[in-house]
Amino acid sequence: MSELIQYVEQQTARDIKGFDFFKTGDTIAVTYDITEGSKTRQQVFRGDVIQIKGHGATKTFTIRKVSHDVGVERIFPFNCPALVSIKNLKKGRVRRARLYYLRDLSGKSARIKEKKFTKKQDPATKGKKRKLAWTWEEQGVYK
Amino acid sequence: MTSIYSADGANLACTVVEMGPCTVTQVKKNEGKDGYDALQLGFGDRREKNTTKPLRGHFAKADTAPKRKVAEFRDFDINKELGDTITVDEVFVEGDAVSVVGTSKGKGFQGVVKRHNFGGVGQSTHGQHNRLRAPGAIGACSDPAKVFKGLKMAGRTGGKRVTVDNLQVLKIFPEKNLLLIKGAIPGHKGSFVIVKK
After folding, report:
1. 10-residue averages of pLDDT along chain B (197 residues)
2. Given a cut of 70, is residue A132 above it in pLDDT?
3. How confident is the model at residue A135 (pLDDT cuts 50, 70, 90)?
């Protein structure tokens, strides 16, 4: 990407560090503004993160939930000004970055196993293993 | 291109254009031999080695390094002297409507559907089977017994000077001389364009 575009994206990015950090497989609740005519109200969308894609100004995440036996997916840009808050309710143990396979599953098999605890990294082996991103800064967000 | 959000929450596609600093390389005056008012602006540096001797002299008059591109703007409404620099915030403000002139992307040899927006045949019955994108008839019979000049046919497409009018300036970054223009502009990435108010 051109460094000038990168500069513009850095300047215009919205601050998302106040939101809970989440990864693919986590269950999150997104609160966002809905404008109907002149009124604005807030709505909560709760579901599993099935993908995080893009970078910079066009980075988005997709949440999936099953509502009355119908799968519902919503895509939110990280930069979207309508986002009010994001809460990470449950960490999931998944082995893929994009959980498209959930679309073909239903009922009990469509659940994601919860990650109950995370391994603490031993300082001796630090750096030798693959470094995992656990904060927005490490994920490369601008603000 | 990138995108930003407007105040009412709409996501707008936009193009980042580096607009300077430009140097005034020539001032033309209505009085005198030029006969009209204009400013010639230069943008981007090039090496002296790659500049012809006459051009080197031209830039030396303005006391600047040789410029990569020069363009003339008639009836410039800001008074500038030879050798002055112009930055983006002197000329543009947010919300301006601008025209962008550039060289469109070259598309090679293209048929009439892409080149001249012909409709194609659009039918697969009535005897059509292998001419979905053909131009059709190109003229009459033994009178005029020729194909008229300028008839729209297949050929080299793109790579031409194109002007897009009425584009909106979304944002200005004076510290880096950047202009954020709503929508797309002609040309490939990194190409030179002229932005007129």
Report:
1. 87 90 90 89 91 92 91 86 88 92 95 92 78 87 92 94 94 91 93 92
2. no
3. confident
Residue A130 predicted with pLDDT over 60: no
Q: Which of B180, B189, B190 sits opposite A8 (nearest CB)?
A: B180
CATH topology of domain A2-115: SH3 type barrels. (2.30.30)
- pLDDT for A26-81, tens place per residue? 999 999 999 888 899 999 999 999 999 988 888 899 999 999 989 999 999 998 88
Q: How many domains does chain B have?
A: 1
User: Is A4 close to B176, i.e. CB distance below 8 A?
Assistant: yes
> Which of A9, A33, A77 is nearest residue B11 as measured by Cβ atoms?
A77
Q: Residues near B75 by Cβ (< 8 Å), separated by ≥ 6?
A: B36, B37, B38
In a domain, B12, yes or no: yes
Indicate whether B140 belongs to any domain.
no
Q: B-chain residues within 8 Å CB-CB of A78?
A: none
Domain for residue B70, yes or no? Answer: yes
Does the CB of A38 have a partner CB in chain B at under 8 Å? Answer: no
- Which CATH number do you get for residue B192? 3.30.160.810
Does the interface ipTM go beyond 0.90? no
B127 part of contact set with chain A, CB < 8 Å: no
B18 interfacial to chain A (CB closer than 8 Å): yes
Give pTM, 2 decimals. Answer: 0.81
Q: Beta-carbon neighbour count of residue B150 at 10 Å?
A: 6
The residues spanned by each domain of chain A are: 2-115
Q: Has residue B165 been placed in a domain? A: yes
Query: What is the domain extent for residue B77?
Result: 2-106+157-196
Task: For residue B178, give the nearest of A8, A33, A58 by CB distance.
Answer: A8
Q: Which residue of A has its CA nearest to B7?
A: A81
Pairwise CB contact (< 8 Å): A79 & B189: no
